[in-house]
Amino acid sequence: MSALSERVWPLVVVGGGPAGMAAATEAARAGLRCLLVDDAPALGGQIYRQLPAEFAVRDPGRLGRDHRRGERLRARLVEVGDRVEVRSRTAVLDIVDGRRLVCSSPEGTEWVTAERIVLATGAYDRPLPFPGWTLPGVLTAGGTQALMKTMRVRPGERALVTGTGPLLLVVAGQLHHAGVRVVAVLESGRSAFTAGTAVRAWRQWSLLADGLRYRLELARAGIPVRYHHSVFEAHGDGGLSSVAYGPVDPVDWRPLWQEQQRVDVDLLVVGYGFVPGTDLCELAGCRTEYVHHLGGWVPVRDATMQTSVPGIFAVGDGAGVAGALVAVAEGRVAGITAAEQAGTIGAAQAARRRGRELRRLRSLASVRRALDEISYPRPGLYQLATRSTLLCRCEEVTYAEVSAAIGEGARNLSALKLLTRLGMGACQGRNCAPSTAAILGAETGIGYPDAGRINPRPPVRPVALGTLAKGDGGTR
Amino acid sequence: MTSHGKAVDVVVAGGGVIGCAVAYFAARRGLDVTLVDTPKRGRATSASAGGLWPLGESVGLGCGVIFAKAMKERCGPEATGHPERLPASFLDFALASNALFPGLAEDLRADTGMDVELERTSLLFLMYDDGDVAYARALWDDYPRQRKYFEWLSPGQVAAAEPALTRDVRGALRFLGDDQLNPYRLADALRAGARVRGARIVTHTEVTGVARVGCRVVGVETAGGGIGCDVVVNAAGSWAGQVAAMAGVQVPVSPIRGQIVCTETLPRTLSACVSTTDCYLAQKKHGEIIIGSTTEDVGFDTGTTAAAIRTLSAGAIRAVPGLAHATVKRVWSGLRPGTPDELPILGPVDGVTGYLNACGHFRTGILNAPLTGVVIADLLAGGRPSHPIEPFLLSRFQLPGTPELAPAGAGGSRA
């Protein structure tokens, strides 16, 4: 393979999920040469994750509708393949000067220079701290899907699925297909299938229809969905053996302890939505803002998906959690605009192509908004954590330690980090910052925007010291 | 407009380890202290590795020896390849400051319940080649008074003491008494201790001006209003020049960047801190190994560079081969408050009253924080400093222009 660092790329797209694939495809269709960098072994991202080559698929029909959508995106990318260089198993560790990307692959580190960058880095599972949440056998919804999609691993025998949002139904269905006995799905919110939602979603009926199909599938399998319910506590000695669960208050989702029940399971899947992964955006100097319904901190963007740094675009769930259909449309807008900036497509044609996608985004927005309102996690859930519950699992910082630091006067995440080591581990606070901000809010009344962030530091993905010691000139 | 009638005895500008130490020791003396601080990218206290190496730093180990090698590679035979040594006055100050740590750690624990994670590690200088041996030999010969702190290790003794180190060494020179602690824990504990002793800590507030009446500093302006005081202490680290300028004083402090690589938490790998011509390594109490550092004059740029990170990483693997597989958790850089002669700038300024410097600590702010706090508190309390500070006065520099105050109305005066 030739070194990526030998020339200046007109466009580098970071992330090979729906948003990144769409951005690269549209940019290439508009005549722009680009490099698509992805840390997974094969394109698709989390939702359209591909089976490893070692697996033979006898009946592709069983892989589902998402699989077919992923295949279509990949096919469109292949059509323009001569203008897109794809580099898999390559992580971007840092962006310097808004133009230089530090890329790491098994071969070492390399510096890539780009005239424009599309960041399509996706989102990660929003963790919810409750007693026992770090036990083996407790998995996130995203992690469960990854296990099943790439490894074809059956992650347990008897499962309980808890959380909020349509992904729960999808994961429960996938577990059922994989032969896992799913005892129930606990949705902390209400049912999405109401007249009100349907009215707001009429233009994007297919989105709701997807959900309804999953719901009917579970009904056929005899898997109950219990609304306004949640996990309370996971029990087990070295591994999960049972789960306490029960109803939550319909308004703030505070646990209603007195109606607690217990069920024996060896797998608990927790899916309380997603948080945008904005590390690279921030390292590149893009301004961010707090938008609750998009999952938290997101880059500030204009209508062409350009961030506050000219030439850097942010698209997909990494710029605000809104699902794969939105991601694809946003990716296309960014790809078209990048090509327009580079002059490989005229303004009029760019506007026409962009217009189609922007109309689609507007139409998706109303149904997204309706679903978000149902499923964003309410503050009562954070009452589940007890004094001894870990908030930061990397550095093993408990709720009690955080509470003590708040007592000492810490009023934002940076101060809590310095006092407790919270967020100083390998995950850089991805797993503890959202829940700690919520707890800080509950104890002090400080809102999420004022709780601030834990500043990302390179490398945003863990990398071996030996890999950093190898690499190209990097003459800066 | 706020009036600058006296509201407190002392305003400390800057909440890094130096400002916190000054506030803590001044508050212990019963002075009414307000510390004003705003977070800045690159502040050296948070970026520091936390080495307390009075001997090592004085003879140029740590970053000095790395910088000297880099200069030799760049400049060729003209450069000696050996680092500059700092004068005896600095060594004395650093040793005296270092000696304060055990007692300070106990006091802070009693005042705040916080542990600064002081560890008796010693510092090992690894000798890779003839040049390293000659350098170590010269130290052995030139510091007879400090010989009791030195220990010369054969390759076999190095292997026995530190099994994780490479066997490819000519030996090592151990510096006993050169230890480490957790730098931000120290700053936090000093800040909390100052608060316990009655100091007021104003966070997230920038000093925007220094108020004067004639040659007298009478207070500071902040975003949150003016604070009148008898004395302003400039402990603004790399930003000390800016605060000094507001008082009409010229202080030659400029940021000198150092880049650092930090591994994930590892099982106990090193018991001593290690200094080589490529990098230093310090395994902290929680298990991370901190690998530093460069010496770069690039202004207030707090970025990291691939070349520096690669050099440091390769240097760490040369010293501890097993680290090749260790995961890097973070890289970062910090801005050391550098001065032309690498010595701190302490104490009063000719022609100005109500103003004290506590800045320019370059590589040794953590190490020299306790004694800096003590001598500045001595001055604030109206006494003589308990350790001589003449070598560190601003007046040692022949600065262009006059140290006299600019006409009232210029230089940020709001009086």
Protein traits:
heterodimer; A: 476 residues; alpha/beta; 5-stranded parallel sheet; 14 helices; globular; B: 415 residues; 8-stranded mixed sheet; 12 helices; 18 strands; 31% helix
Overview of the molecule:
The complex is a heterodimer of chains A (476) and B (415). Chain A has a five-stranded parallel β-sheet with strand order 4-3-2-8-21, covered by helices on one side. Chain A has a five-stranded parallel β-sheet with strand order 10-17-11-12-13. Chain A has 14 helices and 24 strands. Chain A has helices spanning 18-29, 65-79, 141-151, 167-177, 195-200, 205-221, 279-283, 324-342, 347-375, 399-407, 413-420, 433-444, 448-451, 465-469, and strands at residues 8-9, 11-14, 34-37, 84-87, 91-96, 100-105, 108-114, 117-119, 123-125, 138-140, 158-163, 181-187, 225-227, 229-235, 242-247, 261-264, 267-271, 274-276, 288-291, 296-299, 312-314, 390-392, 397-398, 463-464. The model of chain A has no long low-confidence stretch (mean pLDDT 88). The longest helix of chain A has 29 residues, at 347-375. In chain B, the strands form three sheets. In chain B, strands 1, 2, 8, 9, 10, 11, 17 and 18 form an eight-stranded mixed β-sheet that branches. With 415 residues, chain B is α/β, with parallel strands linked by helices. In chain B, α1 (17-28) runs parallel beside α9, α5 crosses α12 and α6 (101-112) crosses α9. Mean pLDDT of chain B is 92; it is low at 402-415. Chain B is 31% helix and 24% strand. The interface between A and B is medium-sized, with 31 and 31 residues.
